[in-house]
């Protein structure tokens, strides 16, 4: 009779796992009662048409879990009362039917925001925010990874040569980005977003005021809101974020001065100095997110705002997602000296630890010159792609879109003519195979502008031309 209750299928789950779970369910539901003797493994195997090993494995597993008692040479006997089991565990089957979870207020709000944006699984032109992973020197990177893994035995468990990457990075940031940094101030994290989470956890109390750019990077508002901050979006003008003169300075200001996200605007020196003046009394912190400041095409990269700060009030955040590939999952934070030790402990508490193998591989990638070589090559390539996208948009859609040519970065904004809303246009474009993002979706309050955020770095010129042709036929 037991074989009639079992239904085994050829599937990925495997016969052993299926037989075990079906027998377990028969016992747990009370259909095979306590004291019931199961058939011998030889007999059950024959009746089910499976190997004896399969049945022996299932019996041993159920005995280990306490569902049956089995002793050598005897048929197994059911050891639990299914009805009691249901009362204790509240379930008669292995499938879990749970009540609607009561989420925290923070988690309840997560799905109401437009971030992170749900893109389709496959990357499509002209999705913004991506570097070209096809151009990444994967063979060289693989060699660095291999050497890091092999060298792990020599380095010893847990003894990440952290300073090697921090020192290489400090040297790069000081010489190429004008940051004031020692290796001790650098914290390697799994992403720039992790750096924002860490800063928020260390500094923000519920109700603290935080200013962010509007439109701006939604991940920043999300990180500070998660700590209970009152986040206010501050508008932009040609010089970048406005300093809101006459208003009480907040606890923290988040900004992307080298290349404002998403407009690409560069914050003027006068504006930078004004913001540093706001932070000087010692109550306001500034977070400078230099997520793609490496990519400047029309002039030398602008030195970081953090390098102008003599009072230790500025955090400098960076990521390898754009310079290398988003899959690398490494970002970093240059912390003000007074906060380094607190942040290091907080990092362990929150668990924002980056893999030591990858850190070691990256240290080697930088030390051997591959990082700067890749950066130089990508700067040339992305500049040509930016120019190509701008030309194509002007040629094919000039009357309909006006393009703000960014001096750097990996994406640009094409503004729609007055009266046209961007979300409807984005929907049509996505359906036609061109992925873009609505500028209005990056607004904190009432959107002031409508436009399309278009990525150019990740796409070859032929792909860009084809995408713009599709846009012309859709819009
Ligand atoms: C302005 C800005 N900062 C930070 C990030 C996130 O970088 P990461 O992937 O390292 O978290 C992004 C990602 O698009 C971004 O646009």
Automatic annotation (TrEMBL):
Presence of keyword Transferase: yes
GO molecular function, one term: transaminase activity
Protein family membership: In the C-terminal section; belongs to the class-I pyridoxal-phosphate-dependent aminotransferase family.
Superkingdom of this protein's organism: Bacteria
Keywords for this protein: Aminotransferase, DNA-binding, Pyridoxal phosphate, Transcription, Transcription regulation, Transferase
Organism in which the protein naturally occurs: Bradyrhizobium vignae
PROSITE patterns per the UniProt record, alphabetical: HTH_GNTR (PS50949)
Entry annotated with the keyword Transcription: yes
Name used for this protein in its record: PLP-dependent aminotransferase family protein
């Amino acid at each position: 009779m037991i074989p009639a209750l079992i239904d085994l299928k050829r599937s990925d789950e495997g016969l052993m796992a299926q037989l075990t779970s079906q027998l377990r369910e028969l016992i747990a539901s009370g259909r095979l009662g306590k004291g019931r003797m199961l058939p011998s493994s030889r007999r059950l195997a024959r009746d089910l048409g499976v190997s004896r090993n399969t049945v022996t494995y299932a019996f041993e597993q159920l005995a280990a879990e306490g569902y049956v008692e089995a002793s050598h040479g005897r048929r197994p006997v059911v050891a639990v009362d299914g009805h009691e089991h249901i009362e204790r565990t509240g379930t008669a089957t292995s499938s879990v039917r749970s009540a609607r979870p009561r989420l925290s207020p923070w988690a309840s709000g997560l799905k109401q925001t437009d971030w992170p944006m749900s893109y389709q699984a496959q990357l499509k032109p002209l999705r913004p925010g991506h570097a070209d992973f096809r151009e990444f020197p994967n063979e060289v990177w693989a060699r660095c990874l291999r050497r890091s893994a092999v060298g792990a035995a020599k380095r010893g468990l847990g003894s990440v040569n952290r300073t090697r990457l921090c020192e290489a990075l400090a040297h790069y940031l000081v010489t190429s980005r004008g940051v004031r940094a020692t290796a001790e101030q650098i914290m390697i994290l799994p992403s720039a977003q992790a750096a924002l989470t860490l800063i928020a956890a260390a500094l923000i109390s519920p109700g603290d005021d935080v200013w962010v750019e509007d439109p701006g990077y939604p991940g920043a508002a999300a990180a500070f809101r998660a700590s209970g901050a009152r986040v206010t979006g501050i508008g932009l003008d040609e010089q970048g974020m406005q300093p809101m003169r006459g208003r009480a300075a907040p606890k923290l200001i988040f900004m992307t001065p080298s290349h404002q996200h998403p407009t690409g605007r560069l914050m003027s020196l006068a504006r930078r100095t004004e913001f540093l003046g706001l932070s000087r009394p010692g109550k306001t912190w500034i977070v400078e997110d230099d997520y793609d400041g490496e990519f400047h095409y029309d002039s030398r990269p602008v030195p970081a705002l953090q390098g102008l700060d003599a009072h230790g009030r500025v955090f400098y955040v960076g990521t390898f997602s754009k310079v290398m590939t988003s899959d690398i999952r490494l970002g970093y934070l240059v912390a003000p000296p007074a906060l380094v030790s607190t942040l290091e402990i907080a990092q362990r508490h929150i668990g924002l630890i980056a893999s030591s193998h990858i850190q070691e591989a990256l240290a080697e990638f930088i030390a051997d010159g591959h990082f700067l070589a890749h950066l130089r090559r990508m700067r040339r390539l992305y500049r040509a792609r930016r120019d190509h996208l701008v030309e194509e948009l002007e040629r094919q859609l000039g009357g309909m879109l006006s393009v703000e040519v960014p001096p750097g970065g990996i994406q640009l904004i094409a503004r729609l003519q007055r009266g046209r809303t961007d979300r409807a246009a984005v929907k049509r474009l996505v359906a036609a195979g061109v992925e873009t993002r609505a500028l209005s979706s990056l607004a904190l309050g009432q959107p002031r502008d409508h436009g399309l955020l278009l990525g150019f770095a990740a796409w070859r010129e032929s792909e860009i031309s084809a995408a713009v042709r599709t846009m012309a036929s859709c819009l």
